[in-house]
Structures are given as structure tokens and as C-alpha cells.
Amino acid sequence: MLEKLKNVEQDALKALDSVQNEAELETWRVAHLGRSSGLMQIFSQFGSLSKEEKPVAGQRANEVKKSLEAAFGARSEELRQAALKRSLEQEQLDVTLPGRRVPLGRLHPDTQTLRELYSIFGEMGFQVFRSREVETDEYNFQLLNFPIGHPARDMQDTYFVESEGRGENPIVLRTHTSPGQMHAMRWISAMNPENPAPVRIVLPGMCYRYEQVTTRHETQFDQLEGLAVGPGITFSDLKGTLADFARRMFGQNTRTRFRASYFPFTEPSAEFDVECFICGGKGCGVCKGSGWLEIGGCGMVHPIVLRNGGYDPERYSGFAFGLGPQRMAMLRHRIEDIRYFWQNDLRFLEQF
Ligand code: DAH
């Protein structure tokens, strides 16, 4: 029986040498350590041994079992290491290769223009006031002196969000930032209705109009509204503020002009032009030969609007303006199509 044990051990160890992978190793385990292996058969034959033979053979059989188990463990580890080495060799890393740069984002040209505007008006004492993009007809039009059916509403083709059951006050997407004027005046005047504090704010934000989309018109665009209300504010304050703004934005020698215009919420109203900074006023393709670029609308806040905002027009006056940041960015960078702004095309965005 000792002889048999020796053969079983030798055969098993020899077979183990040629095992090359996990599957073969498992087959080996079943064959040499499993229930029907030669070794286990020997264990089952102990019953027929004499009293003297039994402990010797038993001890030896246990030794063989331990040695085969140890050999199995060692081979298993060898196979694991070999597989690891192969996979490391396959995934070789060349640490001398130059690294890949992480691409840096940048500010959108519209954001750049807006920040410049905030900083210029900030230096003049204007604070930023934000207001909602989804408005009521009342705030977008009625309180700004565009009553129901007023022809000036035709200038601002409107997206209606909800009319059902709202009578004459449907929900709209704001067509301009001017309703923010009313929110701001009401909010500030409510704090001290007898003597409301003066207002000096700029109101940036998206506006929406049901427009035919062209190179110059989009259904979504932004505006920067300005509003100053206080005792004794005059049209010269408006002119001075916008002329100063133009010099800071477009250069110290930039000339400006005001042309009479009409908006329901201002009286008098004007269109505000700056001398073309591309040709210096001589006339070029950008200003279409006129020498002037239209930058926005402005005027003295209408008494009805002041009263709606909680400011007594006998004691207070104010000016307002509305600028187009995208239009300024387009003029500056000679961007010829407004549709580039929100297309998120990196070929466009990377130029700024
Ligand atoms: N809300 C006007 C528009 O979108 C722009 C505008 C004109 C705003 C004159 C003003 C203003 O505050 O005084 O067409």
C-alpha cells in the first residue's frame, strides 16, 4: 500500500507539471484529489489493513494528501502570476509619451460682452437685478402702458404659454426685459411706499419673440435693460449716461446720437446710435454706409409706468434704456449670423 501511495503521488505531481491553465488545473484536482481519485480509493481500503499497518499507511496517506494539496496551491498561484504578467505585457504603457492636454473651456462671446457691460454700468453705480422669463401679459405689456389691443404690441410677436381661463392676462414668454422694471420698482417702493428709495439697476436676460429666423433675428435673444428713478432725473442724465457708456465700451472718442422714436413705456423716446467703430464714421459695409450703428432704445419713464411701479410722477422721474448685447458682440467681432450664438458649435466658440 505504501508503494501504491508513492505511485499515486508521483503520477499526480508529474501530471501537475503539464497543467497550463485554470481549466486543466480543475480537471487535475478532480482526478487526483477528488472522490474517485486513486488517493481516495486508498483511504477507502484501510478497513482491510492489519492493526500494525493501519497507522503507518494512514499517516503516509495523509502526508500525500497534504503534499498534493500544497502542490495544487502552488501551481494555482503560478498560473495566476503568469496570467497577470501576460496582461501587463499586453497593456504596456509608454511613460515617455507626451500627455494629452485637457481642453480648456472659455467664456461665450455673449457672456464676455455682458460681463463688460456689468462692469461699465457697475462703475456708474448700477446694480444687476434679475427677473423672470415667463411673465404675465399684465407685466409684459399692460403695466408698461401697452393696453389690450394696443398697436405697439405688434412690434413684439409674442409666444403665449397659457391662455385657458386667464381672461385678459395670459402667461407669455417675456418679449423684452422691460417687465423687470415693474418688478423692481414695485419691490423697492413696497419697502417704503411714502418715500420709495431711488432705483439704479441693469436687468439682463433672455427674451423670446415669434420671429422669422434670419441672419439678424432669432426667436431667443438677450437684452440689457437699464432703469434709473429718483427725484429730478432728466433727459440729460440719460444722454450723459449712455454717451459715457459708449466711450467706455467702444473707445474714448466714440460719438453718439439720439433719434426720436416711440415706445409706450417712455416719453419722450429715442433710438440710440454710436458712431461706427469699424470705419470711424466714414461709412462701411457694417454700418451700411451711414457711419452710425443702432445700439438700443431709450427714453424718460412714462408717468403711467412710474405710477404703476409705486412712484409718484409728480415727485419722481426716471430714464430707461434697452440694449442688445448680442448685437454689440456681433458688431465688435463682425459675426455675420446671429444663429451662431446658441448652436454650440466649437468652431465658432473657440474663436473667442
Ligand atoms: N423694450 C424695448 C424692446 O424690446 C427696448 C427698450 C426701449 C427698452 C426703450 C427700454 C427703453 O427700457 O426705454 O424693443
What does this structure look like?
With about 350 residues, the chain is α+β, with helices and mostly antiparallel strands. It has eleven helices and ten strands. The chain has a seven-stranded mixed β-sheet. It starts with a helix and ends with a helix. The model has no long low-confidence stretch (mean pLDDT about 95). The protein binds 3,4-dihydroxyphenylalanine (DAH). 3,4-dihydroxyphenylalanine (DAH) binds near residues 266 and 298.
Keywords:
three-stranded antiparallel β-sheet; alpha+beta; binds 3,4-dihydroxyphenylalanine; elongated; 352 residues; seven-stranded mixed β-sheet; single chain; 11 helices
Strand order of the largest sheet: 1-5-6-10-9-8-7
Give the number of DSSP strands.
Answer: 10
Q: What's the SSE pattern?
A: HHHHHEEHEEHEEHEEEHEHH
Major β-sheet annotation: 7 strands, mixed
Shape: elongated
- The class by helix and strand makeup works out as alpha+beta
User: Distance N terminus to C terminus?
Assistant: 90 Å
Beta-strand percentage? 15-25%
Report helical residue fraction: 25-40%
Which regions are unreliable across 5 or more consecutive residues at pLDDT < 50?
Answer: none
Q: What is the tally of helical segments?
A: 11
Arithmetic mean of pLDDT: 93
Can you list the ligands bound to this structure?
A: 3,4-dihydroxyphenylalanine
- The radius of gyration over CA amounts to 42 Å
In short:
By secondary structure, the chain is an alpha+beta fold.
Write the layout of secondary structure elements.
Elements lengths: L1 H16 L4 H12 L4 H7 L8 H38 L18 H15 L3 E2 L5 E3 H4 L19 E3 L8 E3 L5 H13 L7 E10 L11 E11 L4 H16 L5 E8 L2 E10 L16 E10 L1 H6 L8 E7 L1 H9 L12 H4 L3
The structure holds 3,4-dihydroxyphenylalanine.
